Amino acid sequence: MLTRLSLRVRIFLFFCLLAVGALAVSSIALWISFLRVSDPELVNAFIMAEIIMGFGFIALIIAVWLLFDDNVAKPIERLSAQLRARAHAGVSTDVDMQAARYLGDLAPAAAGLADQLSGKTLDVAEAVAAETAHLSAEKQRLTALLTEIPVAMVLAGPTHKIVLYDGQAAGVLAQIAHPRLNASLFEYLQPNALQQAYEKLSKSGLEVACTLTSIDGAQTYSARMKPLGDAPGYLLVFDESAANISPEAARPLVYDFDLLNSASGGQFETLALQDLCFVVFDTETTGLLPHKDEIVQIGAVRVVNGRIVDGERLDMLVNPGIPIPPASTKVHKVSDHMVQGAPDIAEAGRTFHQFARDAVIVAHNAPFDMAFLRRHAKRMDVDWDHPILDTVLLSAVLFGASDKHTLDALCDRLDITIPHELRHTALGDAVATAQALVKMLPMLQARGMTTFGAVIEATRQHGRLLEDLN
């Protein structure tokens, strides 16, 4: 049981036990002495002595605990978080020696070991970077080649979830809904024809021609379903004329082949962190009162398999239906003129809801942003029942509740730079929050929190932070 408590809580309990023990010992000593006297004046003196001793012991132990907490417990907690960030999040910031000055040689030794390990891995990192650059160049050439070919291709797993789509397929899917990795094709296409074609493919192992209909029934597509050999899933190729494919589609090739073997289904609480899709978002508003102010901008990005997916982002201006105060415009740079003709919160909310379907919603101080969305849930005709993860609470879990947990402070700790022109824009802050999430996920796993349920349980211990923040 005690091992589940933080170091600072365990030290606090130790000093509480010390205080109880000191009071018990002094009380027993005075009681034994009291039994040996009969003078009433001495009895009163013993009682007064016990009261003075009790308060004195408590005051002394509290003072020592505060000194110990500030100069030993907090620095140890901060040092461990900094080392974990260096080890698992690729953070290269120096260890804070000043904060750990009373820990003797522990901080310099830890910093020396971290630097030594960093030096030994430098050659490996350079080799990986060179290979990554090579693969990136190959991917760019492949993307350019596929973009020039007037064929729309979608690679799907055996559960019909998207593993890859090219630039032309993005254009096809975007006619129905925002294209997203790990989204079910049933969100875009009616399932009957797709399932029938897959059954034929599974039995024969040969290419199957099929006619597919968009989920809203407005469009039909001639397509071919191809097997992937020994790999699970299939390749869906849309016919050029049926899909109205533009050969000049300037969209990236988006893929993650690990999704072919990722777990699916089950309760969110039992799923491993690497099997979850996250949608990280932020809003800009007319003010700070969710019960009366309105959203003017929504920005969101998707994180799949621990990485931000290029090309899958949302950046929308929203018409609030009320004037935007000049003080708010000064912060987020969104003016009344900019939101003219923009969708209202009902339309924008539905778009974001679809973008976040079957994903964990992540935000920095999520209750604030979600309050605006939930207030208009009836107008949007949606239910905001997504699981929610708050990076304020993740920061508290990893770096201790006593540290600052603003977005700027978190980014400083994780060596993340927010471009000045993007700070306090919905997409800019969403990208920064997503970068922080990507760095914190391996740190959480290193702490033994490998499932979503374990992470949520850890964050509940710091719920008071959000109450104070809001």
Tell me, what's the shape? elongated
- How many strand units? 11
CATH architecture of the largest domain: 2-Layer Sandwich
> What value does the average pLDDT take?
85
* Secondary-structure class: alpha+beta
Helical segment count: 16
Helicity range: 40-55%
The CATH class of the largest domain: Alpha Beta
Q: Biggest sheet, strands in spatial order?
A: 3-4-5-1-2-6
The CATH superfamily of the largest domain turns out to be Ribonuclease H-like superfamily/Ribonuclease H
Percent of sequence in beta strands: 5-15%
Radius of gyration: 29 Å
CATH topology label of the largest domain: Nucleotidyltransferase, domain 5
Order of helices and strands: HHHEEHHEEEHEEEEHHHEHHEHHHHH
Largest sheet: 6 strands, antiparallel
Name the poorly predicted regions. none
Structurally, the number of domains stands at 3
Distance between the ends: 32 Å
Write the layout of secondary structure elements.
Layout: H1 7-34, H2 40-88, H3 106-148, E1 152-156, E2 162-165, H4 167-174, H5 191-204, E3 208-213, E4 220-227, E5 234-238, H6 240-243, E6 254-255, E7 277-285, E8 295-304, E9 307-317, H7 326-332, H8 336-339, H9 345-355, E10 360-363, H10 366-375, H11 377-380, E11 388-390, H12 391-399, H13 407-413, H14 426-446, H15 452-460, H16 463-469
Helix pairs in contact: 1-2, 2-3, 2-14, 12-14, 12-15
